[in-house]
């Protein structure tokens, strides 16, 4: 069987890390596309030279013309600009909406059968632009945010409980912004929901509230430390988990920015919800029940996403 082709649009911090992870996990051959001359070519060559050391086989190529992504099975999009300290994700919309429009056209022309994962911020609006301009089915275009936000939540919870990250599962829903909704009732340690762990005395409600706040600000915490850009290792690992679920038909249940039309009371909006990812892309949206508090937080998050989509619509080529 021929190796799969994975196209990475954007060869910056996340793009380079994605390429390295694809090689290490032998998910397929990689092409990197970027407007910066030499950058995708240089990163491709560097990673190709690490493959003999790692004992993995994957070809690595880079280019500045969209034709390099032709026939890709998976496209992961990070093109655009990241945050600097003091910026919110939403401040990026003016630049990144136009970049997404160009990327969407490129995908439409060169690889209309691909499974597309968007990472560029502001995520929920950018995945909408990418879908609109690419014209792909909604089930084949998703946004990565929930896997990362949940991983941040899991990291802090595992530290608090002093247990393996493997035994902590967590759900963060809603938009990828300050209004994201970490769902404590659906987050567990070895199947025990967090509210029960508070009752059992493993932690306090105050500590849990602090962890929820730290999760919401997880991206800003790293931007503040790095000063020159935003997180890239965990975002790349999260997108790779989604790509792997598709390529290997794993049918993983992951929180992603997925198209909600007739579910969660929505009538056509990309927002973070649990979905099943398999060989057909988004195979199912898992419509969990929310209590009144959770629903109120989700509704606030949905309104924030609607505002960003409306702003993006204004920026689209007419
Ligand atoms: P960075 O290292 O700056 O890489 C972005 C790359 O995009 C650069 O190499 C640019 O040259 C390239 N680029 C710019 N315009 C174009 C274009 N028109 N076509 C092709 N390439 C272009 O950023 P990064 O890799 O750290 O982050 C990339 C994006 O991911 C940013 O928008 C971040 O905000 C976003 N991000 C999202 C998350 C989520 O959880 C959703 C997490 C972290 C970062």
From TrEMBL:
Active site: 176
Keywords for this protein: NAD, Oxidoreductase, Tricarboxylic acid cycle
Residue span, Lactate/malate dehydrogenase N-terminal domain: 5-143
Catalysed transformations (reactions): (S)-malate + NAD(+) = oxaloacetate + NADH + H(+)
Gene3D superfamilies, per the entry: Lactate dehydrogenase/glycoside hydrolase, family 4, C-terminal, NAD(P)-binding Rossmann-like Domain
GO molecular function, one term: L-malate dehydrogenase (NAD+) activity
Sequence positions that bind NAD(+): 10-15, 34, 96, 119-121
Ranges of residues in domain Lactate/malate dehydrogenase C-terminal: 148-304
Keyword NAD: yes
Enzyme class, UniProt record, top EC level: oxidoreductase
Sequence positions that bind substrate: 83, 89, 121, 152
SUPFAM superfamilies associated with the record: LDH C-terminal domain-like (SSF56327), NAD(P)-binding Rossmann-fold domains (SSF51735)
InterPro entries: L-lactate/malate_DH, Lactate/malate_DH_C, Lactate/malate_DH_N, Lactate_DH/Glyco_Ohase_4_C, Malate_DH_type3, NAD(P)-bd_dom_sf
Entry function: Catalyzes the reversible oxidation of malate to oxaloacetate.
Similarity section: Belongs to the LDH/MDH superfamily. MDH type 3 family.
Protein name (Swiss-Prot/TrEMBL): Malate dehydrogenase
Organism lineage: Bacteria, Pseudomonadati, Pseudomonadota, Alphaproteobacteria, Rhodospirillales
